[in-house]
Amino acid sequence: MTVKKLGRQTVAFANPPTIAGYASVVGKKEGDGPLATFFDLINQDDSFGESSWEKAESAMQRLALQSALDKAGQAPSSLDLLFAGDLLNQCIASSFAVRGQDVPFLGLYGACSTMAEGLVMASMTLDGGFGNWAAAVASSHFCSAERQYRTPLEYGGQRTPTAQWTVTGAGAAVLSREGNGPYVTHATIGKVVDKGIKDANNMGAAMAPAAYSSLTAHFSETGRKPSYYDLIVTGDLGELGKSIVLDLFRADGVELGNYDDCGVMIFDLPAQDVHCGGSGCGCSAVVLNGYLLRGMAEGRWKNILFCGTGALLSPISSLQGESIPGICHAVAISTEKGV
Amino acid sequence: MTVKKLGRQTVAFANPPTIAGYASVVGKKEGDGPLATFFDLINQDDSFGESSWEKAESAMQRLALQSALDKAGQAPSSLDLLFAGDLLNQCIASSFAVRGQDVPFLGLYGACSTMAEGLVMASMTLDGGFGNWAAAVASSHFCSAERQYRTPLEYGGQRTPTAQWTVTGAGAAVLSREGNGPYVTHATIGKVVDKGIKDANNMGAAMAPAAYSSLTAHFSETGRKPSYYDLIVTGDLGELGKSIVLDLFRADGVELGNYDDCGVMIFDLPAQDVHCGGSGCGCSAVVLNGYLLRGMAEGRWKNILFCGTGALLSPISSLQGESIPGICHAVAISTEKGV
Predict the structure, then answer these.
(1) ipTM score over 0.85, yes or no
(2) How far is CA A216 from CA A330, A339, B185, B207, in A?
(3) Do A107 and B103 touch (CB under 8 A)?
């Protein structure tokens, strides 16, 4: 038992699960960005043929999961467990995506950390012996998020310089108990960290301390140095949050040379006019299940640390004057099993 | 591995975790009901001394977890994992309850099935070897739910006969890898079931088919008859949903004699004027962590099947004309380990 627990927050998988299939589905703006060639499906119509933005988001989840299952050579009926979550009130993008699918389902809420949270849960349950196949899915949609969190699109609201742009996209990963990698080898589960940031248009600053907290826990509990990883990716802090993480490590005398952020990577900054970058559960989900895992398959990286970051606020909590709790779950993925 | 998986939806724990501590915190109306003597804390002031109903809900979660930890003789720093969820948009009752607590946190969304979902996740991760202590917490608050899902309290809205009353309460269970029971022995993880009910004031009817689905899966995959259990409890279908479950089993030639529902049990019907009964994540959470586990400790029951039921709708999905997806996770709890 104790072998699996490396420290307060970090677990090491005894039999690291394989990510056997992965897929990403995005909208037009993401398809105009620098990672376009890595996405499985780019739809020029952000409605995905549905009658509401919320239904469009569910459609993206279904497409991403189906594509990931196809790549893994599995039917939905193979899945022992499906973990999914999104940003909508009561997580309806996920619930309605799963409706009609013959799969045991456990719903998550981790804000933009959901993809990482799903990987953690899927890996723990497979390694724990509770099935052979599990999937993790996460999504967000610019149009459903905008009217829920901010203002209806038709208002044409102004954005502050620190704001981020919610990614329209869904990512899905299908994990198997046995396989040839890439392997999920470790997970560092986040604590809620809140340093008092109250500006809901500056979520990068709110989440950066949570990222720093989980990253330092991961390095200390695994005994690994940041340089162990070919790439450390947070998602999605944006440009400002990324610079804060770099500063926090610099204060410890550590220069993170191999570090980037999904919110910065997914859009062409500043050309695409998304201010500090991308955000939303879909952001890190599509960067992982598009660019990152594709890059590992193509030999670009052997070891990555994927750190999903979430801002656990709501419009109500902001209106009530509350600061923004952040969380970050770090997941180590490697092309080699025995690391 | 295969030993732990009994069928498509059901897992059996190799080393069933013990529920080492449990606690329930409720408001005034619940304290006026028939289960009053089983709750740990009844507050005559539903604000719990906080400035908003949302913060009151977070306060209940903190009180319930602290009390459950006290009974287990553990500090928060013992917890390897905390699973929590609620009904509020972006699950802020849970996130803000966990803020400031030094505990690895994984957020859930399962609507009113959250307590059962948390037990499932805590049991799988402990049995999987990822820690020695885990907690599951769930809550709801009549006043925060009413203004979010229906109308502000000040409107004095009329309720339809099939409506249920959101319970003001939070329940917490602290599970340990080793202990003397009661033990979580099996879990049947639900699929999303939607039979087309669109009336958001009739959630019992919407969720009953999900309860029937998971119950029949549980019986078939474990080979157990309903009579194996001293008590089968759904939560929270209310009077109408309960009668539908009984009817669905009757159509199969099965008379469920040992069956009740948390939504029916928690209030005095019809005297407390809650129409079909209680609802909300807090309902099954406080009935389990008050009445049911206390009853097992006092020798009233040896084997119970706790079936958390959730309606995975949102006000937006209802306004868009959608029907209501339901889910049910069934958790077998026994005073004996080797069952």
Answers:
(1) yes
(2) 10, 19, 36, 44
(3) no
